[in-house]
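Thread title: Can someone regenerate the structure for this chain?

I was given the following input by a collaborator and told the matching structure tokens would be attached. They weren't. Posting the sequence so someone can regenerate them.
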Amino acid sequence: MPTSHPALEEGAVHVWRTDVGGSADKLDRCRAVLDPDELARAARFRFDRDRDSYTTGRGTLRRLLAKYLSAPPAELRFATNDYGKPYLTSPSTANLQFNVSHSGKLVLIAVALRRDVGIDVEVEQAGFDWQPIATRIYSEGEQAALRKMPENDQVRGFFQCWALKEAYVKARGQGLSFSLQSFTVPVAICEADGPFTLGDGDGAQPWTVRPLYPRPGYAAALAVEGKEASVQCYGWRP
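Best answer:
Regenerated them for you:
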């Protein structure tokens, strides 16, 4: 983690990574800033791993945004759009856009100024039978690209493709109303693969999507409204 909280500039996206759970003290610090609704939601999770993942993600989000806003983390207020994407309502002057994803032992949070963002992380599952799911939610081009991969790379390619598609859908904030089969992403599995652009055509604002590689065994991706942003990655230790 940097020695001081980094300034967020126009055109930049900050991506933060933290581990789920950990010490009881860490979870207590995350839990301490949650509001009553968030505490109630955490309590409804049946398994400790899911409860810890939600608590870590939400608590870290509050503490991170509070740093950017110079505000107490417990006083931040959120709402969701019609499709469930959260946004800040207080402080009302905030121009921060953010998105959160967690899977396995990782939480990723993307933060930007006045640009919608989406982020997704997926823990790769060795031996996963990807083809039945790909048939239902991937475009024909994506399915063909996966089948052409060496067999040892196909599972990794499936999860990277999933992360790219999810990050884009989350950035747009339209939830399940936006079909995953309605667009095609390149199937990327190595750090040499760079960003690409998706859009609606007819002069609509483009979206820039790029794979991320936060840790071996995880696939991740970031989507940003508009042209390519400067992506800066940090580790968070609450």
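The mean pLDDT is 88.
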